[in-house]
């Protein structure tokens, strides 16, 4: 259901049909008295339609989404859209400035939704974002990367109990859809409670740009917009031969049985046979004691630790299980090949 909005305004700034406007959302001030703002851009089509929110850097050190939003805003398809796109490249501006996942009060913004007007710094920012932005949207896509020193294969996370999100998740076209429960305090949970179907896109690593993750993100959002009827365009212009995303029903973290230096033996997208495929070796600095690591489930690697220094219990490798395992591996391979071919052709 598309809400009809005649007078579309954010923090008192109205955006007329056919208008593109940058708005600096007022966030109060720093202790230097410097005013703090969150830059956003709104594209309102002449025709009314869905109102899609695309947000990034709720975790302030997750940069791929910031670049995805920048490229999306330059895309020619946005010239004639139906409905409205609200693009927010940096939600956690404080964390972004500090190159940190968290807010200066140490809180995780994505555990602070829906927030409250008189709450903590994180709670207030979450509240303002919900009231001023999320409440206007009919659909949302929230962009993330792996945490620091962790990289993720491009994947869309949705709660499949919400029937409305599956067609959007499929339209996005990431190689993997992960059925993931709503996390308490996350933007996704708060938005879904408001009746806004929300996709979470996870790809690449914190504090890095990952070209495959960025391209797959831009194209995924455009495909969702096409699915929602916001943009037109031939199917061929956005990957005609893209395989259907396979849905992982469960996922599992291989954790370090002891502290040590980890030499990883697997790559993203690799197939893992339980108790057989070597995940890597965990050793002491002199190499006297080395332990070979295996997984207790079969699946495909969708996330990896990049830093070789690990404490006991640390997550080394994220494995997703599929009912059609070989198909999943083949699809991921096809996706990766297509993305690299595209990078080579287009530069
Ligand atoms: Zn994140």
From TrEMBL:
Q: Where is the Succinylglutamate desuccinylase/Aspartoacylase catalytic domain?
A: 49-227
Q: Write the record's keywords in alphabetical order, separated by commas.
A: Hydrolase, Metal-binding, Zinc
As cofactor, the record names: Zn(2+)
What GO terms are given for molecular function?
Answer: hydrolase activity, acting on carbon-nitrogen (but not peptide) bonds, in linear amides; hydrolase activity, acting on ester bonds; metal ion binding
The residues forming a coiled coil are none
Q: Which domain of life is it from?
A: Bacteria
Output the InterPro entries linked to this UniProt entry.
AstE_AspA_cat (IPR055438), N-alpha-Ac-DABA-like (IPR043795), N-alpha-Ac-DABA_deacetylase (IPR053138)
PANTHER family from the entry?
BLL3975 PROTEIN, SUCCINYLGLUTAMATE DESUCCINYLASE_ASPARTOACYLASE FAMILY PROTEIN
Know the name of this protein? Succinylglutamate desuccinylase/aspartoacylase
Q: What organism does this protein naturally occur in?
A: Thiomicrospira cyclica (strain DSM 14477 / JCM 11371 / ALM1)
Tell me the lineage of the source organism.
Bacteria, Pseudomonadati, Pseudomonadota, Gammaproteobacteria, Thiotrichales
